[in-house]
Structure formats: C-alpha cells, structure tokens
Recover the amino acids of this structure.
C-alpha cells in the first residue's frame, strides 16, 4: 500500500499529453547514429506515434506496423487475442494504470512464416518543457514460424521531469523467434518503468538484452510465460550506473509446460552511491517436468557506498527439473590485474580493461553486428566517463563530437 | 644489467629467500635450477613486483635503479618481462586489445608515438610467427580455453611483442610436450640479442638442450648454493639434486 501512495503522489505532478504533436520529420528531433544499422523506425514523440500520412503501414508480405490506436480500429481481434493471453498473469499497479490510461503505442503484426530481416526500432523521444507523464502500450504479434527483432530505445532530448510507464506485450505463436533489445540512457530527472510481457507457445525462442547506461530511476520488469513444450527464453541484462542513479530489474519466468528452457544472465557495475537491484524469479509449475532454468547475477561495486540488492529466486513444484541460481558481488580479480600490469599497463587502464570485459560479456550476446559494435563502444565510453546524458541520447550524437578512445577493442 | 644483493624475502612471515646474490649482464642467458619449493618462483615474483612478498633485507638493482621503488607497470616499461608459470585466463579481454594497450603504454613511457592499427596488426602477424601461432589470435580472449602449450606460447608471443631487455621465464617448460618445447625455445633464441638478457628458471635440464645457458645456478633453501657452466646442468640431470643437498648440509 505504501508503494501505491508514493506513486500517486509522484504521478500527481505529471501530466499526460492529450494530443499528438503536429507532424515533424523525426530527424528534426532525433537522429540515430548507428549509420550501418538498417531498421524500420517506429518513432514516438511525447507518448504519441509520429506519422506523416497513414498511421498504419501494410507491406506486401502481410506485415503491418504503426499506431496501436489505429490498429484497434482495423485489427481489434489480434489485439484482443494478445491482451487475452495475459488475462491470468499477475500484473503490478503501474501496468493496470497503463491499461486504463495509455495514449498510444506501437502495433506490429508478423503473419505466419514471414521472417523480417531488418530490425524494427521503436524510438521514444521526450521533447517538452512540461513535466510529462508518458504511458505507452505496444502490442507485437508473431504468427507461426514468424521471425523478427526489435530494438526499443528510450531517449530524452530536453531536460525535463518525465515519468514513463511503458507496457509491451509480445505474443509468439508456435515456432516463432524474436530478438528484443532495450537500450536506456535517460537524464537524471526521468523515471522509467518498463514492463514487458511475453507469451510463448511451443518451440518458440525469445531472446532479450536490456542495457542501461544512465538512469534517474529505471525499473525493467519482464514477465515470460512459457506456455507450451519446448519454448525457450534467454534473458540478458547489463546496468552501468553511477552517482545517485537507480536501476532495478525484475524478472519472472513462468514455466507452465514441460520441456521448456530459460536462462537469465544479468551483470552490473555500480559506482559512487548508485543502487541496483536484481530480482529474478523462476516458477516451475507442477506439470512442467524436464524444465531447465538458470539464473545468474554478477555485480561489481566500485565504492563502499554503491549498493546492489540481489535476490535470485527459484520456486519449484515439479520434480524432474534442472535449475540453478547464483549471485555474486565482488571486486575485480587481483590475479588478472597483476597480469595486465606486469605487461606495462597502468593500474587504471587494467581496471578499465577488466571492467569492459566484465560488461562486454552481455553485449556479445547481441546478434545484430552493427548494434553490438555500437553498444560495445557505448560501454567503453560509459566506463571512461565520457558518455553522459549530454550526448543527448544513447544512440544519437547530435553535436557530432569525436571521441578518442584510448582502448578500442572493437576494431582489431 | 641486473644485480641482486643479499636478497631476503618473506611471505606472511615465513622466509623463502635467505640471501640471494646474482649478477646478470647484457647478452647473457642464465639458468636457475633447483628442486621444487626452494624459492625459484618467489624470485621471479619479487622481480615482477607481485604483492604479498616482503623484502626484508638486500636489494635488486636493475639498470642502476632500485627496483623496489618501482610500480609493477614501470618495471615492465623499463624492459622487464616475466613469462609466468601459470598464466591467468582473462575472459573478455582480447589478446590484440591487451597487447595494443600494453605496447602503447610502454611506448608512451619511452616517449614514442603510439602504433596505429595497421602498424600494430603488421607487428602482431610478424611476431605470431616467432612462436608458430598461425591461427587468428587477435580476437581470442587472453588465455581463455588455451591448452597448457598454447598458454606458454602466448607468453613467448607477448615477449616477442614487447621486446624486453630482461626476460625471466618461470618454468616455461612445465607441461610442454617436445614439439611445444622446441617452438618455445626457438622463439626465445630468436629473440636473443647482445643487448638483452634471459633468466630461465627450470626444474629440468631438458629445456637447456634448446636454450643454451652461459651460466647455471642452483637455488637451494633460499640461496644460490652452486654456480657453473652448462655442464653443471648436465651433471644435475645425471645425478639429481641429492648430492647438492649433501654438499650444502655438510658445509653448514
């Protein structure tokens, strides 16, 4: 109850934007700087889908994408299907609030057997002087054997207080595959609550990678329901926070059926007085025999004041299962530090190399090459203290500054 | 080049080295032999600057400077290289990135411009050949998943890259089959010049068939108890260490 009161108090200072802004080309407010990354861009400005003419785009192969509001008129049954899939899933109060109050969001529909090569990219930009409440709801539906990847970026352009409450629902039909990447680089005045719900049918494969560089407060919550046999979910995450930033990752994987597999690997580096949390929860339901579920959370604390709360948690009601969980909080490996220094590398740079290696393990799971390379660079810059919100956003570089990297691991 | 005078070293209050004297000049190869647990690796670790070793007496002078006042990295930048007995695995740090960072920091220390990417890659290709590493090394993580032989070859590869003045090879032959031994030894011989020096720490004479020493020392009970030519190594191979022990005990 306490939490609810504090949300209500917090939320009272923010306002929803009731109408979309007049159309402007996205390039005027935001420019993605991954030059070699071809994506289908789905821009959101202040909580509304940006479009010039048609709010929905229909491709020849049957793929549909665009504004969720518009899709509710044209494809109500698909959206209803998707909502229905989560009707028995436990939801927190912010999700409920989002359900009743969301402005707009993105709708993506991939028909059976269609494999979309280029990733979709949702870019949510906040550009306003007001204290803004953004409530977006995204619905993504994959038909049988459909494949797609999605990059979801949360960026800020102006300094303003924002409260973002985003719910994304993913429905995966049999044999579908999805790669989901979440990048977050928000100014310190922002609060971001990001909820992802995934419904997986038989033989589906879901892969997520959540990377947090800067945050005022960020909570990423992921709920995955493995509903039919041989569904697989791989969830990776990285958080690099400093100053008084906070980042929480809440994960719940429900093994509802037999022969499903899940893996969680989350890593973080906390500096200054930053606080991070990892709450991983795996529930193996009574009939979910031959489940394999693994949870790992590793953390490095750079100061005495930095803090991490980690609670890997397994709840098992079936007897034929293979599960493990583990968490570590530590400093860098002294033997490795010595080895690097004994070759002439300063202690400072040796630490940076080891921290990069620690963080980059997560980035290595990114399967889009251009994104992996860029994220690797971002981690490098973040650890060098060069990446701040002054860069305006995670993937844009509006002032086109050249950075000199003393260590450039990605190029050689 | 290196002068060790009356060196006493303790680990957690236990004295390991009990007065070592050693002088090494440019162009020389010295072998330090001896049974296990007599302080051979301790000597290498102290020269490298590893923490946890207390020098209670004596000093190490390298190129006229007292080593004890130098940081680990400065020793390397001054040209000291240790080939470790058990090289550490560092997942996620590529060999290329590791070597490029090291080389450019050493170059900066010496007032040289850093190597650009192309120059560096050319150097890497060239030096890989010294230890017959033909597969693409650059993207592999340092020692991660390497076999024992590969780890040792990687040590010699690093030595080739950094071109040290004084190399100390700590039990480089341990865990090597005969082919790997030949490759490692050829690498060391290839890198030998009149201006650098090498200390080979070994338990067996085997390696010294390939790397021929100018001087052989026997370290026993924390002291150098015998010094001779390469024939001493052969004698040790034939007779073992027991006679050294007896000689040492009776001299006490």
């Amino acid at each position: 109850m306490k939490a609810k009161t504090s949300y209500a108090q917090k939320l009272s200072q923010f306002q929803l934007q009731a109408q979309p802004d007049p159309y402007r080309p996205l390039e005027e407010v935001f420019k993605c700087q991954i030059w070699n990354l071809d994506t289908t861009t789905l821009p959101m400005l202040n909580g509304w889908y940006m479009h010039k003419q048609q709010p929905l785009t229909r491709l020849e192969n049957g793929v549909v994408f665009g504004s969720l509001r518009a899709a509710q008129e044209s494809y109500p049954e698909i959206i209803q299907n998707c909502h229905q899939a989560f009707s028995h899933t436990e939801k927190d109060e912010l999700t409920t609030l989002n359900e009743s109050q969301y402005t707009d969001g993105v709708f993506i529909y991939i028909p059976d057997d269609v494999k979309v090569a280029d990733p979709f990219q949702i870019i949510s930009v906040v550009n306003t002087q007001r204290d803004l409440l953004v409530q977006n709801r995204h619905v993504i539906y994959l038909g049988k054997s459909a494949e797609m990847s999605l990059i979801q970026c949360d960026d800020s352009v102006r300094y303003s207080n924002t409260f973002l409450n985003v719910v994304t629902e993913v429905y995966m039909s049999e044999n579908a595959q999805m790669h989901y990447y979440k990048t977050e680089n928000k100014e310190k005045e922002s609060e971001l609550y990001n909820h992802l719900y995934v419904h997986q049918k038989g033989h589906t494969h879901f892969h997520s990678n959540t990377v947090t560089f800067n945050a005022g407060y960020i909570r990423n919550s992921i709920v995955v329901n493995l509903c039919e046999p041989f569904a697989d979910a791989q969830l990776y995450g990285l958080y690099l926070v400093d100053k008084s930033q906070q980042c929480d990752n809440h994960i719940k994987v429900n093994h509802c059926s037999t022969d499903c597999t899940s893996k969680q690997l989350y890593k973080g580096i906390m500096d200054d007085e930053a606080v991070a949390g990892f709450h991983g929860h795996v529930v193996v339901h009574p009939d979910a025999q031959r489940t394999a579920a693994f949870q790992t959370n590793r953390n490095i604390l750079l100061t005495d004041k930095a803090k991490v709360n980690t609670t890997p948690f397994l709840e098992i009601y079936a007897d034929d299962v293979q599960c493990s969980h583990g968490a570590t909080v530590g400093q860098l490996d002294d033997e490795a530090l010595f080895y690097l220094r004994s070759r002439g590398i300063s202690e400072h740079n040796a630490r940076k190399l080891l921290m990069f290696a620690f963080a980059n393990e997560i980035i290595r799971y990114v399967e889009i090459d251009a994104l992996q390379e860029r994220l690797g660079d971002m981690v490098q810059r973040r650890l060098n203290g060069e990446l701040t919100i002054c860069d305006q956003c995670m993937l844009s570089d509006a002032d086109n500054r050249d950075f000199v990297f003393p260590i450039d691991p990605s190029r050689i | 080049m290196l002068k060790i005078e009356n060196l006493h070293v303790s680990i957690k209050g236990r004295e390991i080295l009990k007065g070592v004297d050693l002088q090494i000049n440019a162009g020389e190869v010295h072998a330090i032999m001896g049974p296990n647990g007599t302080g051979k690796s301790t000597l290498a670790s102290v020269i490298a600057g590893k923490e946890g070793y207390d020098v209670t007496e004596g000093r190490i002078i390298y190129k006229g400077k007292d080593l004890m006042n130098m940081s680990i990295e400065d020793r390397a930048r001054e040209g000291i290289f240790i080939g470790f007995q058990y090289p550490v695995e560092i997942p996620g740090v590529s060999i290329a990135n590791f070597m490029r960072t090291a080389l450019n920091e050493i170059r900066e220390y010496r007032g040289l411009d850093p190597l650009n990417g192309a120059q560096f890659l050319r150097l890497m290709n060239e030096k890989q050949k010294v230890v017959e590493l033909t597969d693409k090394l650059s993207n592999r993580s340092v020692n991660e998943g390497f076999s024992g032989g590969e780890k040792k070859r990687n040590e010699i590869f690093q030595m080739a890259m950094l071109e040290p003045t004084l190399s100390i090879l700590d039990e480089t032959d341990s865990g090597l089959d005969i082919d790997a031994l030949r490759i490692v030894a050829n690498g060391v011989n290839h890198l030998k010049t009149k201006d650098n020096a090498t200390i080979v720490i070994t338990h067996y004479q085997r390696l010294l068939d390939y790397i021929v020493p100018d001087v052989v020392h026997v370290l026993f009970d924390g002291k150098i108890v015998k010094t001779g030519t390469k024939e001493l190594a052969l004698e040790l191979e034939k007779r073992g260490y027991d006679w050294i022990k007896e000689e040492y005990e009776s001299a006490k």
Summary: The helical segments of chain B are 40-48, 72-77, 95-109, 117-130, 148-162, 178-191, 230-239, 242-251. Chain B has a mean pLDDT of 91.
